[in-house]
Design goal:
alpha+beta, single chain, 6-stranded antiparallel beta sheet, Transferase(Phosphotransferase), domain 1, 12 strands, Phosphorylase Kinase, domain 1, 2 domains
Length: 204
């Protein structure tokens, strides 16, 4: 069935061209920013199956976290815009990245020690900025990703840095605020989580 989003002009600005990814939270399209001369961007829509208030807030928070963290670190995917389309479906616009996920790299062959160390160092650099925190509602809030795994790590080629590592998918990230009520339900991918949730212990 033909995807009705293909060739659609979103917000009188973003020309949707191709579906490039689909996950539990929604779909991602390659698009052109017609306002900025056709710059290639990626547009992520929240799944129509998740259009409740809780998921809308989580989706908007994901966009906000990535936008703020992207200003701190080149190792976090950068978000440029957020909006709601004519059908009341939230979306956000981010940089378009072409590369391989760490899971794809590992499937081909184990990386060399030097490459492994370089990728790990960049992941840690991105997470360090998240753990230091961002200003959210005038409060410094730490960010815990909660779903670091090979498929959420993208390695792209950069003319200056060589391999540039980007951390993706902050959809279930925990934003720690002093006023928030902490919950201890498990979220993430069990195979890649720390040992504590597996035995019912708090993780922070």
């Amino acid at each position: 069935m033909l995807d009705p989003n293909i060739s659609r002009l979103l917000a009188n600005r973003y020309q949707l061209l191709k579906l490039v990814g689909e996950g539990s939270m929604g779909r991602v399209y390659r698009a052109e920013d017609t306002l900025l001369g056709g710059v290639t961007v990626a547009v992520k829509f929240l799944s129509q199956m998740l259009l409740n208030e809780k998921m809308r807030q989580r989706f908007e928070r994901e966009a906000t976290i990535c936008a703020l963290l992207g200003e701190k670190s080149i190792h976090i995917v950068r978000v440029r815009d957020y909006g709601v389309d004519d059908s009341d479906i939230p979306y956000y616009v981010m940089e378009y990245l072409q590369g391989e996920s760490l899971s794809e790299i590992i499937e081909k062959e184990p990386p060399s020690l030097s490459r492994f160390c370089n990728i790990t160092r960049q992941i840690c650099a991105g997470m360090s900025g998240a753990h230091e925190g961002i200003l959210f509602n005038q409060e410094l809030c730490q960010i815990i990703h909660r779903d670091i795994k090979p498929s959420n790590i993208l390695v792209v080629q950069n003319p200056t840095l060589g391999e540039l590592v980007k951390v993706l998918d902050f959809g279930i990230a925990k934003l720690i605020q002093s006023s928030s009520t902490m919950t201890h339900s498990f979220m993430g991918t069990l195979a890649y989580c720390s040992p504590e949730p597996k035995v019912g212990e708090r993780t922070g």
